[in-house]
Amino acid sequence: MSAEFSVVAEGLQKRYGDKQALDGLDLAVRRGTVFGLLGPNGAGKTTSVRILSTLIRMDGGHARVGGFDVAKEPRQVRRRIGLTGQNAAVDEILTARQNLMMFARLFHLDSRHARRRTDELLRQFSLDDAADKQAKTFSGGMRRRLDLASSMILAPEVMFLDEPTTGLDPRGRSEVWDAIRQLAAGGTTVLLTTHYLDEADKLSHRIAVVDHGRNLTEDTPAGLKRAIGGDRIEVVVQDAGDILAVVKLVAEVSGGSEPQIDSEELRVHAPVNDRIHAIAEVARRLQEADLDVQDIGLRRPTLDEVFLRLTGHPAAAPRSDDTQTSPSTSTSEEGATA
Ligand code: ATP
Questions:
Q1: For residues 61-70, b (16+ Cβ closer than 10 Å) or e, as one string?
Q2: How far apart are the CA of 226 and the centre of ligand 1, in A?
Q3: Is residue 85 in contact with ligand 1, taking CB distance under 6 Å?
Q4: Structural domains of the chain sorted by starting position, each given as residue range(s) with its CATH number in brackets
Q5: Is the pTM here over 0.90, yes or no?
């Protein structure tokens, strides 16, 4: 592992009391890429970011960020990184411009450079129109963008983004996604933690799925979707009496894969390969059979489905003692503690 990788972590261990937050986590993030660390609550994402950004110490393992050892050369690491979390660190009373100027001065830029950098960042994060408004008047997405901009004053080599869109509405999320793309386009390596599959999918070059402080699998977004079945067709029936007929029909169109049934919500869904063909064909056959439905559509798998597929249990469920996991993707499943 060399200059090709901006973040390398091997066998990270971290324990809080009797809670093993990280249990041998490995990461390798190629320079100039966006890497998604995807996992449910409590998977160990924040703990990893806090270790890699030198905020807390690891109990075991090794990590290098920007070419420097996280445990032995924390000051060198700190000089090369930016970090933003779920709680924006902006000052509400100040305007966007004043916030950025304040951070620029904290980083010892002289006033001319501070002004220039502030203007650049306001433009880069599409905040020029709101530059002279107080941050307290901002939407969640604008605030998060301002927060991102303020951690970019020195254009860090590596940026850690810990669940950057949690709590935002769809518009705010998409604004922050644009800002992250800008950041990556400028050459910054980004390690992004998220529990949204679509977010990891949209932004990352590679995604590691983690749970219980361990790697479950790692792939490109396309590879991961292939492994978990890609798009799904979903039909919500009108009348509970029709559900079996719909299951049969969906199974035929989806190439024989067994549809999942949510009998409470009258929902039937199954993975499909050719999405357009599948939806057209299901609609045609429903019409032919004179079956009425509330809804029909295509959707991406959820994080829960990813976990179900990879581990045999839903994301939020505690791990059981037996390890009936997907053999092709697990990397270290022995030694499970309930
Ligand atoms: P989330 O999506 O909820 O932020 P996460 O994947 O970031 O989850 P972590 O915050 O890293 O997960 O937590 C991993 C495990 O360690 C969890 O079980 C959590 O309860 C525990 N943990 C984290 N920080 C502490 C702490 N300071 N003291 C005790 N336990 C902790």
A1: bebbbbbbeb
A2: 30
A3: no
A4: 5-225+316-337 (3.40.50.300), 231-299 (3.30.70.100)
A5: no
